[in-house]
């Protein structure tokens, strides 16, 4: 019986790179026709590996995969909150991800959103397109000396800090998991309030965990003294959009620039779609031709490693490897 890899969903134009990596291992690649739980569970029962992008890999899907002898669930992306990692670990199924692709793309997009919002680029372009030639009717301030708060200081947060400092911004970071030590010209905040209280701009770079759900909500916004711009290129659930909309309307926020929202696509009737102080892009910060190729190759390579019995490059649940080693020993 051929080794089967089930692709639950993907964002690639084709799967040529995946095939080039896996077909030498005599792998049969099957793309699931839908991403609902029952369909995925049915296909998972015959999978030696699952390749996942946005599909929800729930406990029932994991149970079905385990029953069929699945060895690895490989996520094409940085986050993995759509996969029940606990269920996979319980069944001894390895889960992998790609935490180090598109870092420059997301950092660039973060600065692009910030610059576009601060310099009022979309409004200015619309003025010209309408046949007029006048300044946007809003206050535009220089970036030099402005204070940027980064909530989360991992790989992408650090790249954003480098770019922001090149524009002369002062950077303060809040990350409770950040080890002690020098931050190379970046100020460390002791808590969320210290980070956001005096910020002109706030950029989110934290992972989506239960503790971080709606990290920025009504209570957090009340801590902000300077009506800042909020940028989110991380995870939509970090931001309470109802609270954000209220704060935009009453002036407690000067603007929002979002590439991710809690519900995607953002509903057609959502007030932020047409809000004059909201800039929203369709979850594209990760994208470049090079990043897509890199993502597909690294995801497929993790599957190949698992099928060959080799350790993965980026495991989410390395305890599965330890348990397997003890069993083999």
Walkthrough of the structure:
With 329 residues, the chain is an alpha/beta fold. It folds into 2 domains: 3-101 and 289-328, NAD(P)-binding Rossmann-like Domain (Rossmann fold); 103-280, 3-Layer(aba) Sandwich (Rossmann fold), CATH 3.40.50. Helices cover 36% and strands 15% of the residues. The protein is built from 12 helices and 12 strands. The protein has helices at 16-22, 37-44, 59-67, 85-90, 103-118, 121-129, 155-166, 192-197, 218-222, 241-249, 289-308, 319-328; strands at residues 3-7, 27-31, 49-52, 72-75, 94-96, 147-151, 170-174, 187-188, 201-204, 229-232, 255-258, 278-280. The protein has a 7-stranded parallel β-sheet. Strands 2-1-3-4-5 form a 5-stranded parallel β-sheet. The longest helix is centred in the C-terminal third of the chain and has 20 residues, at 289-308. The chain is elongated, with a radius of gyration of 22 Å.
Architecture blueprint of SSEs:
Blueprint (H helix, E strand, L loop, with lengths): L2 E5 L8 H7 L4 E5 L5 H8 L4 E4 L6 H9 L4 E4 L9 H6 L3 E3 L6 H16 L2 H9 L17 E5 L3 H12 L3 E5 L12 E2 L3 H6 L3 E4 L13 H5 L6 E4 L8 H9 L5 E4 L19 E3 L8 H20 L10 H10 L1
Parallel strand pairs: 1-2, 1-3, 3-4, 4-5, 6-7, 6-9, 7-8, 9-10, 10-11, 11-12
């Amino acid at each position: 019986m051929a080794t089967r890899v089930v692709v639950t969903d993907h964002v690639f134009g084709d799967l040529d790179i995946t095939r080039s990596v896996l077909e030498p291992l005599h792998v049969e690649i099957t793309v699931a026709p839908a991403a609902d739980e029952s369909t995925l569970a049915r296909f998972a029962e015959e999978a030696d590996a699952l390749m996942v992008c946005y599909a929800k890999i729930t406990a029932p899907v994991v149970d079905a995969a385990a029953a069929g002898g699945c060895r690895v669930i490989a996520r094409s992306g940085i986050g993995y909150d759509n996969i029940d990692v606990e269920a996979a670990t319980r069944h001894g199924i390895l889960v992998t991800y790609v935490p180090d692709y598109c870092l420059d793309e997301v950092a660039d997009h973060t600065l692009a959103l910030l610059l576009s919002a601060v310099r009022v680029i979309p409004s200015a372009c619309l003025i010209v397109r309408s046949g007029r030639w006048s300044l946007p009717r809003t206050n535009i301030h220089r970036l030099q000396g402005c204070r940027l708060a980064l909530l989360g200081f991992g790989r992408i947060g650090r790249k954003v800090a480098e770019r922001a400092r090149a524009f002369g911004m002062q950077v303060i970071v809040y990350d409770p998991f950040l080890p002690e030590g020098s931050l190379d010209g970046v100020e460390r905040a002791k808590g969320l309030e210290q980070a956001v209280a005096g910020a002109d701009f706030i950029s989110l770079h934290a992972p989506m965990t239960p503790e971080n759900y709606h990290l920025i909500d009504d209570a957090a916004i009340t801590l902000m003294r300077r009506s800042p711009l909020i940028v989110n290129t991380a995870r939509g659930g970090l931001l309470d959009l109802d609270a954000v909309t209220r704060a935009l309307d009453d002036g407690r926020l000067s603007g929002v620039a979002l590439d991710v929202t809690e519900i995607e696509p953002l509903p057609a009737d959502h007030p932020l779609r047409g809000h004059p102080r909201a800039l929203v892009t369709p979850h594209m910060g990760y994208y470049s031709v090079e990043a897509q190729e890199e993502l597909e190759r690294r995801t497929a390579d993790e599957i190949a490693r698992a099928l060959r019995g080799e350790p993965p490059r980026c495991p989410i649940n390395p305890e599965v490897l330890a348990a397997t080693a003890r069993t083999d020993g």
